[in-house]
Amino acid sequence: MSLILGTRPDRLNPSDERGLVYDDAVRQRTEALYPLVRDLVTPMEWPALAPLIDGVRRLKAERGAVILAHNYMTPDIFRLIGDFRGDSLQLAMEAAATDAPVIVQAGVHFMAETSKILSPEKTVLIPDMRAGCSLAASITGADVRLIRQAWPGVPICTYVNTSAEVKAESDITCTSSNAIQAAEHIAREWGVKRVIMIPDEFLARNVAANTDLSIIAWRGRCEVHESFSGRDIAEIRAAHPGVTILAHPECPPDVLEEADFAGSTSAIAHFVRERSPRKVVLLTECSMSDNIAADNPGVEFLKPCNLCPHMKRITVANIYDALRDMKHVVEVDEDIRIRAQRAIEAMLALPRPTRPATFLRGRPPVPVELI
Ligand code: 13P
Ligand code: SF4
Fold first, then answer.
1. For 253-282, what is the HEC assignment?
2. Which of 147, 154, 284, 348 is the most exposed place for a label (fewest CB within 10 A)?
3. Is residue 26 located within the same domain as residue 107?
4. 339 with 219, same domain?
5. Dihedral sign, CA of 263, 269, 273, 279?
6. Rounded distance from Cα 253 to ligand 2 centre (Å)
């Protein structure tokens, strides 16, 4: 089965299923796009994909929609139909800034909720409501209210990978691009030296190793990044001498200790673009390498592949259906939305670094208090 087309030999392809055909007009309108995915889509597969791509582009224009595509989307979405691409922070900023009346979130549910919180007057669509996140599923608003009672006077800095309800109980949100900055900012504002960081235990531990603050952490994990380990890095280095290893800060601390670079998905892309290392391994979700390989032809990508099953629920076919049927509309209760917006806007008001923030590697682990 092709990761991009999601086709099975016993089924019609997704274009045929929707009555979309590869005729001369579609061929002409899409032929300039094929080179952007040539490495991943064979010439035989293209006639099955092109009508869908063409259909999405037509529907986007009809609806006045923009597609916000996370760095983990498959390359057909990322390169051919995404209007804005980036990490969680960049997509949130884009959702707040766009004039388009319709936003299609090519990402997971918490990202769509963030867009709705920041742009309540817009219609926000997610192509598959089941596109969740193991971190977001690990904690509820009621949990945060209990945490607040147990640690009065300690600010709560919440990763955006959470529900709107959890954000509504928080003092500031953060992403992997600004987690250290947000924790230090909220501690300064509250005049304290301790910060509660929820729900990602590893992100919290990695922040703890990069700041003088004491960190209190929840035991949530990203199911994609928790499976990498420092031992994997030793094995990769032994098998590929000279390789540059880049890791996302949702990885366990022993990974960040051994990696050559750690930062958000966009910080990783920036590093590869700027430094052009000869050979790299990205310890993050699979599609990242595919998405940035085309822009970095001199770089060899080794691809240990950990798929995020939630991100992979989003396909070109269900983006087409979402735009055709204006589904699935993401709503956030107004009381929750207003409180969540406050926490997100506290993050968006942080000074913007000129370069993507990075985590220092080689830092020894620091103890954190676990909730
Ligand atoms: P970024 O903010 O780095 O894009 O990460 C989002 C995410 O879900 C990573 O697993
Ligand atoms: Fe959530 Fe991990 Fe998937 Fe990101 S990669 S959406 S943190 S499960």
1. HHHHHHCCEEECHHHHHHHHHHHCCCEEEE
2. 348
3. yes
4. yes
5. positive
6. 17
Q: Is 173 a pocket residue for ligand 1 (Cβ < 6 Å)?
A: no
Please return the burial class of 327, using the count of CB atoms within 10 Å of its CB with bins 0-12, 13-18 and 19+. Answer: middle
Cα separation of 68 and 124, whole Å? 10
Are residues 35 and 116 both part of a single domain?
yes
Is 6 a domain residue? no
Residue of the nearest CA to atom 6 in ligand 2? 133
Per-residue pLDDT of the chain (371 residues; tens, 9 = 90+): 355 555 555 567 899 999 999 999 999 999 999 999 998 899 999 999 999 999 999 999 999 999 999 999 999 999 999 999 998 888 988 988 999 999 999 999 999 999 999 999 999 999 999 999 999 999 999 999 999 999 999 999 999 999 999 999 999 999 999 999 999 999 999 999 999 999 999 999 999 999 999 999 999 999 999 999 999 999 999 999 999 999 999 999 999 999 999 999 999 999 999 999 999 999 999 899 999 888 898 999 998 778 999 999 999 999 999 999 999 999 999 999 999 999 999 999 999 877 778 888 777 778 999 99
Please tell me the total count of domains within the chain. 3
Among 141, 347, 367, 135, residue whose Cα is nearest residue 249: 135
Residue 100, in any domain of the structure: yes
The atom number, within ligand 1, closest to the CA of 285 reads 10
Could you tell me if 38 and 123 lie in one domain? yes
Ligand that lies nearest to the alpha carbon of residue 265, given by its number in the listed order: 1
CATH number at residue 234: 3.40.50.10800
Distance CA 296, CA 328 (A): 35
- Same structural domain, 199 and 251: no
The reply to whether 93 and 185 lie within a common domain is no
Ligand 1 proximity of 175 Cβ (cutoff 6 Å): yes
